[in-house]
Amino acid sequence: MKEFAALAVLAAASASASAQSSVTVFGVVDANVGSVNNGSGSIKSVGNSGNETSRLGFRGMEDLGGGLHAGFWLEGQLFNDTGAGGAPGANQGFSWQRRATVSLISDTLGEVRLGRDNTPNYWSRWDFDPFTLNGVGSQQNMMILNQPIQGTPLVNGTPLGSGAATFPRASNSVGYFLPGNLGGVYGQAMVAAGEGNIGGKYGAGRLGYKTGSLNVSLEYGKTNLGANDLKEINTGASYDFGVVKLMGQYGKTTLDRVAVGASAQKNLLIGATAPVGPGTVKVSYNRVQISGPDTGVSGLGSGSAHMLAAGYVYDLSKRTALYTTYSRISNDPGTQFTVGGQQNGPATNGVTGKTSSGYEVGLRVRF
User: Fold this and answer.
1) pLDDT at 6
2) What's the rounded Cα separation, in Å, for the pair 185 and 188?
3) Which of 2, 80, 184, 355 is the most exposed place for a label (fewest CB within 10 A)?
4) How far apart are CA 265 and CA 94, in angstroms?
5) Which pLDDT belongs to residue 228?
6) For residues 84 and 76, is the Cβ–Cβ distance under 8 A?
7) DSSP state for residue 164 in the 8-state scheme
């Protein structure tokens, strides 16, 4: 009888410990076939992450009692079209570049999070883009100034981007999130230590209100680029009418260069999603305007460009979906934005002032 009682106590203790902590394995595998035409030619490809980014992750939570929890999150991208680790074409192992954080969470005071994490700027755009910043319809096609400098040159040989390494994520960061019991008010603040790396020092905050069908937010951030600064301000709103969800956002990104002054990139997005049959129709219109005395820096060009994107996601189940997306960018004579991002598809030579278009058809499976 004593032995039985002891076993019962151990079993109860084990069940209690199991209930207080948990670890989850999760991920997405997303593959597609498609084509991009960037004015100077087209290229067909088998790619990944057209609907959701292919990824593998582990997350865990431990109940510390008294409304306090500890958590961790490790997540890395999968390049399932090639099986390579790291960036496309890189010969390296799997990494946790998407997110690597540890958290202390209070039910009443909010969450403190340390590590590599999504920035407020990323969330302010992700929430109000029908394509959630993925695939050929992504708003990122129109966001050169926010990107790190890439190796692919433009026709004038100038590398792309401002050199900021804080979109969509920042390393070496400390973040704070408001608790979820504030009547729909939410917020995030983040600071990232540059640790001697130009383009890594960052500070930003986001405040929003979400309840029922309405979601609105405002974000401001600044990345230090040595003697220069990259500043951004974004605002967005969405409303779900049931038959259609409308959304819009406006953002201004300024590259403030000491030597020549400030150049600005203004982005406007109007979009919608609508349930149709067993899936969802997505449409968006993006407009970008580049201006300032330094518009030749980082391949920005000058003038405006417009992008129209449309897609459909056909849900085979809660986890699995077929999807297709098409987008087309029209450039003014001074701009050279491309579908799929500047480092994807064919060379950008000759795209200035012309159109860039692309499509993809894919399958996404969550696990």
Assistant:
1) 44
2) 11
3) 2
4) 34
5) 87
6) no
7) -
What is the DSSP track for 99-157?
A: EEEEEEEETTTEEEEEEEEE-HHHHHHHTT-TTTT-STT-GGGG-GGGSPPEEEE-TT-
Q: What is the pTM of this model?
A: 0.88
On whether the CB atoms of residues 52 and 136 are closer than 8 A, the answer is: no
Strand 99-106 versus strand 110-118 pairing type: antiparallel
Helix H or strand E segment including 12: helix 2-20
Tens-place pLDDT, residues 291-303: 876 555 555 567 8
Q: What is the pLDDT of residue 160?
A: 59
Q: How far apart are CA 273 and CA 277, in angstroms?
A: 13
Reference 145, options 162, 157, 158, 124; nearest CA is: 162
- Contacts of residue 190, defined as CB under 8 A and 6 or more positions apart, other chains included, come to 117, 119, 120, 170, 173, 174, 175, 176, 202, 203, 204, 205
Site of tokens 């079209």 = 81
Predicted local distance difference test score (pLDDT) of residue 289:
93
Please choose, from the candidates 43, 21, 46, the residue with its C-alpha nearest in 3D space to the C-alpha of residue 31.
46
In 3D space, the residue among 112, 95, 96, 94 whose CA is nearest the CA of residue 104 turns out to be: 112
pLDDT at residue 349, as a whole number: 55
Which parts of the chain have pLDDT scores under 50? 1-19, 151-157, 342-345
In angstroms, the CA 13 to CA 26 distance is 28
199: left (phi over 0), alpha (psi -120 to 50) or beta: left
What per-residue confidence (pLDDT) applies to 85? 65
